[in-house]
Amino acid sequence: MTYQSEESTRTETLISVAKKMMIAARTAPKARGVDNLVIAVVESENIQLISKKMKEIGETLKGPGFIRDSENILQAPVMVLIGTKIEKIGLKICGQCGFVNCEEKEKYPDIPCSFNTGDLGIAIGSAVSVAMDNRVDNRVMYTVGQAVTRMGLLGKDVKIAYGIPLTSTSKNPFFDRK
Fold first, then answer.
1. What is the maximal distance between C-alpha atoms in the chain?
2. DSSP category for residue 112
3. Beta strands in 18-118 (DSSP E)
4. Quick check: 122 and 28 in contact, CB under 8 A?
5. Per-residue pLDDT of the chain (178 residues; tens, 9 = 90+)
6. How far is Cα 29 from Cα 58, in angstroms, rounded to an integer?
7. CA angle 159, 41, 54 (to 5 degrees)
8. Closest C-alpha to 69, from 169, 167, 163, 3
9. Phi and psi, residue 107, nearest 5°
10. Considering the entire predicted model, what is its pTM?
């Protein structure tokens, strides 16, 4: 009799869920249909590099949360990264970013359009709902996103990002943290 144990298929299953999460993020609604998202999946070696950068940020900026999270993500064999480019969407009447309109906002290219961050949040919500539907342990981490943007992993145009480490264990390691 042959069989596959859950342990032997865990990473493969997590990768499958991560791919579904990317599709859910991509198909989430976007303001005016403008898609500025960049989405990726990383595994062990890249997670280790991101962890190293997070620890470096934590030590340099005296941020204990970065150091804690840098160790925490090492428990994830797979991680989804979701970021957004900072691009105006071309509304004539808006002002939600603090400027009168998109034309005025364009003078400040590093200030995000409120729709960029809103779309990113909706996409993240869609992605983690897939993880939840598949009973995969996860947590949305801005600390991962800080490291990813500084490393340029999602491209130089991505200015805001988050990471979602995934695992399948008897207890979610991303919530009961030191």
1. 70
2. P
3. 37-43, 78-85
4. yes
5. 888 888 878 899 999 999 999 999 999 999 999 999 999 999 999 999 999 999 999 999 999 999 999 999 999 999 999 999 998 888 888 889 998 888 888 899 888 999 999 999 999 999 999 999 999 999 999 999 999 999 999 999 999 999 999 999 988 998 877 6
6. 34
7. 55
8. 163
9. -70, -15
10. 0.93
